[in-house]
Amino acid sequence: MKKLIKLIYPYFKNKEILEKIIIKLEKGEYWSNTLREIYSENYGVEIGIGTYGCFKQEKYKYIRKIGNYCSIASRFRILSKKSS
User: Fold this and answer.
1) Largest CA distance in the chain
2) Backbone dihedral region of 27: left (phi > 0), alpha (psi from -120 to 50 degrees) or beta?
3) I want to staple 46 with a disulfide (CB 3.0 to 4.6 A). Which of 6, 30, 65, 79 is the partner?
4) Which residues of the chain have pLDDT under 70?
5) How much is the pLDDT for 34?
6) What distance in Å separates the CA atoms of residue 21 and residue 4, rounded to the nearest whole number?
7) Where are the alpha helices (DSSP H) in the chain?
8) What is the sign of the dihedral through the CA atoms of 52, 74, 71 and 63?
9) Beta bridge partners of residue 18, listed in sequence order
10) First to last CA, the chain
11) What is the dihedral of CA 56, 59, 64, 70, to 10 degrees?
């Protein structure tokens, strides 16, 4: 089933619904290897195990890696890619 989900994900219109299904099947986003692989392959973002609140495609324009056991706020935004 995991291979099928990963195969259809790029073509699925409402990715949020598919992600919710994956989260339910894999007992939560903390441990979902399928979502981590999907985000790595489709968005170029590595997300560590135990991290949650992170599965929103629009958040990762400039981020490439998130560590293990992180909590990402639902209203998290990056306002600029420039550092001072």
Assistant:
1) 45
2) left
3) 65
4) 57-60, 77-84
5) 94
6) 13
7) 2-8, 15-25, 33-43
8) positive
9) none
10) 45
11) -70
Tokens representing 28 are: 């939560």
What is the rounded CA–CA span in Å between residue 77 and residue 75? 6
The pLDDT score that the predictor gives to residue 82 is 62
- Phi, psi for residue 71 in degrees, rounded to 5: -115, 120
Q: Which residues contact 75 (CB under 8 A, 6 or more apart)?
A: none
User: Could you tell me the two tokens for 13?
Assistant: 């219109």
User: What is the rounded CA–CA span in Å between residue 28 and residue 32?
Assistant: 7
pLDDT at residue number 37: 94
**Residue 40, burial from CB neighbour count under 10 angstroms (0-12, 13-18, 19+):** middle
Quote the pTM value: 0.80
Interatomic CA distance for residues 20 and 69, integer angstroms: 20
